[in-house]
Design brief:
The protein has one domain (about 15-195): Hypothetical protein af1432 (Orthogonal Bundle), CATH 1.10.3210.10. The relative contact order is 0.13. It contains eleven helices and no strands. The N and C termini lie far apart (about 45 Å). The longest helix has 21 residues, at about 175-195. With about 210 residues, the chain is an all-alpha fold. α3 (about 25-40) crosses α11 (about 175-195), α4 crosses α8 and α4 (about 45-60) packs across α9 (about 130-145). The radius of gyration is 16 Å and the shape is globular.
């Protein structure tokens, strides 16, 4: 047991949701990679970057507890369905909270849909009440959702997504983290494009 590669295990665990929801294929990898890039740009400690990277891989693990009819619905969710979908962050927290050494990671998973202005879920936390890692993952998650095609929405370009995120600065996203994200996009766009790959082998984040 001592020879287990923890990161490989976490990466495999994040595949569980992809077996249920094909539209999320590669999503956890992309969010984890971008979250780590942002955390590194911020100068965070190696241990914290590592925790954020792991939490980002696992941020949607709670979707395994969402009914297939809602999780794989091809159109937009109605109000009741959306309310059920929101439970995935709490389910993910419940899955991870008892694992020794994953307390901080479980809280990032729980709060990755909180918004800077307090309008998110599940607890309507705001500003510094939201764990730093969760604030980073929120932005990376939103960016990937914007730039990945879904049955009900066309993928936005990087430029369009950046404009949308900039508009939501201080509302949905931590303004300082947003600035670091913009630096990452400007400085490492080619690298990001090289590591973000769709199922078909095409780049997911199209410039």
């Amino acid at each position: 047991m001592g020879n287990i590669d923890f990161h490989s295990f976490v990466n495999s665990l994040s595949r569980v949701i992809e077996y249920k929801d094909l539209y999320t294929h590669g999503h956890s990898d992309r969010v984890a990679d971008l979250s780590a890039l942002i955390a590194l740009e911020m100068g965070l400690s190696e241990d914290l970057v590592d925790e954020i990277h792991i939490a980002a891989h696992l941020h949607d693990i709670g979707k395994t507890g969402i009914p297939d009819g809602i999780l794989m619905k091809s159109g937009k969710l109605n109000h009741k369905e959306y309310s059920i979908m929101q439970d995935h962050s709490l389910i993910g927290y419940d899955i991870l909270k008892e694992v020794k050494g994953l307390k901080a990671i479980s809280l990032m998973v729980k709060y990755h849909h909180e918004k800077f202005d307090g309008t998110g879920y599940p607890d309507r936390l705001k500003k510094d009440e939201i764990p730093l890692g969760a604030r980073i993952i929120t932005l990376a998650d939103s960016f990937d959702a914007m730039t990945t095609p879904r049955p009900y929405q066309k993928a936005r370009s990087i430029e369009e997504a950046v404009i949308e995120i900039s508009k939501s600065k201080k509302k949905h996203f931590d303004p300082d983290i947003t600035d670091y994200f913009l630096k990452v996009i400007e400085a490492q766009k080619d690298y990001i494009l090289s590591i973000i790959v769709k199922t078909e082998g095409e780049k997911s984040w199209i410039p």
